[in-house]
Amino acid sequence: MTTDLPDDVLLVTREGPVTIATLNRPHRRNALTRDLRDALQAFFEERRRDSDCRVVILRGAGDHFCVGLDIVAVTEGDSMIDDLDRGDWALTDLLRAMRACPQPIIVLANGSVAGGGLVFALTADIILANESAFFCTAFINLGLSGTELGVSWRLQRTLGLSLARELVFTAGRLDATCALAQGLVSRVVPDADLEAAGLAMAQQIANATQDALRLTKRNLDLALQSPTVETAYELEERAQMRRASTGILKTALSDFAARHGKR
What we know:
Blueprint: E1 2-4, E2 10-15, E3 18-23, H1 34-47, E4 55-60, H2 71-75, H3 80-85, H4 89-100, E5 105-109, E6 112-114, H5 116-123, E7 126-130, E8 134-136, H6 151-159, H7 161-170, E9 174-175, H8 176-181, E10 187-189, H9 194-205, H10 210-225, H11 229-244, H12 248-259
Parallel strand pairs: 3-4, 4-5, 5-7, 6-8, 7-10
Antiparallel strand pairs: 1-2, 2-3, 8-9
Helix pairs in contact: 1-4, 6-7, 10-11
């Protein structure tokens, strides 16, 4: 099944319980316009009530994931820049919708992952990269602050203070090998294998129940914001009690015993 959103800027396909959203502006290296932003917003909001989807893959068409703001489109009248003058509230709403999306989000990082593209990758749950991928903040090159849309919060927690601040101040590039070594991405694969690797991981994750995935994602997010491990203990215990109350644990134990010939 394929659904084309406005102007085909975002293509949505299904592979069983896996939903794949493709940024579809390869002629502009999937640079961000108002239409693409609005399409992404609608997509992630729809996933909140999508009972058939267990995992989301976010990818870019062509050789690049996303280079951030489409400066050419802005110079030609795209109204995206008007919102920036009043604050990034619309883009922030999009990022909130990504985190509120109950399904784990896997970003397939290929080619340039810059500016807003880097923000999308950081807002996802898992980043898989191909060997050609590189990461860059880019904001400071436009005369803006080097930190925007949560980059100061996410990048320093991911890379550590020194490297995160070097990238922000210099707008330097972090290649895939360094990104893997620093923990920004979970895996680097050959260019031709990226989609297959992403789909295989998504299908493996989709073996879990939808409620288990939702509770796990929620607890991981809350743990990052919790001041003590005691809070994590409590949140995780409540999630386990909720799942155990469905009888799923007893069923899993019975299945395990049957597979191993035990009564």
